[in-house]
Design brief:
The complex is a heterodimer of chains A (about 110) and B (about 250). Chain A is mainly α and about 110 residues long. Chain A has four helices and two strands. The chains are: A mainly alpha (about 110), B mainly alpha (about 250).
Chain lengths: ~110, ~250
Amino acid sequence: MNWGGFGSVDGWLAIVGLAVGTFLIRYSFIGLLAGKRLSPRFERALQLAVPAIFAALVLPLILLQAGEFDLHARWPHIVATIIAGTYAWWRRGMFIPLLVGMVALHLLLLIADK
Amino acid sequence: MSPGAHNADADSGAARIAYLAGIRETFVLIPSYVPFGLVCGVAGVQAGLGEWGAVALAAFAFAGSSQAVLTQFLSSGAPLLVAVLSGLVVNLRMAVYSAAISPRISGASRKERLLWAAFLVDQTFISNEARRDRGEHEAHALAFYLGCATMLWPWWVLMNAIGAFAGAKLPASWQLEFTIPLSFVVMVVPLLKSRGQAAAAIAGGAAGVLLYAMPLKTGLIAACVFGTCVGMLVDAFMTSRQNRIEAAK
């Protein structure tokens, strides 16, 4: 039975540092700047920042293989994403589009293998 | 029974429904946490945090990519401060989420704000955006949000723990890690309503790919700023065109 270890003091300092710092980032606008009126322009910018940041988060995970653009390796992922995204746009919901995307990916990978 | 008591009952009933809806909403994200959670748990032990340190990191940071960066830096013998700051840079995107949520919870108490902040991650944030877009549970947004957190936070900690204690990994051929980008696409696509937002997504995504090699995912922040600026330009263009059409009438 592995009862687990506790690592070094430095390790725990790192854990506390990341945890506290991350909480402060999360709490920044929600708590520290609570009650401050944001300008309408800034609020509008935020509505655009959300799609921008999620697209920037997602697209590399879809297109890149080990940091390189590799259409040959990634085309099944690209097509599966388009299928799932189109389905989600059309029907909303989460479970079915996700399932459709993953099934499509595996089928396409089977084709790509041949 | 007084009418007031009846209202309170109905209200707590609605809150419970919102909470359960949050659990149901994020239940499908369960598979997307498995591969990355396991990897982060393994990495925590390899970085010398010990099994319990790895679990604590997952529980208190609750932010996969920053955990991965922190443990990677610690394993490579980087100074403590450098490792921590690098992890924090990866989490800067959460300031954008914090700013986006803030105006919508203007009536929230200090305690409620602490809860909103504590569980703010990509998945809980975007689930809340989707809920808001559908106009559901407006009065019980926090209950819905806590439902999402109830599903995701323990599951994330558990996956890290299994990675830490059992060193388990999933076969890469399952492609389960692909459910992460896929779930984000599925959640974000219905939120794209205006041309400005679509332009922001296209520009942000393109910049995200081109700037992917920038250290510590700083490319992500740069891409977010770039995408937002492009979106604002398109917005301004659409508005001025609209004004010209109206003026011509």
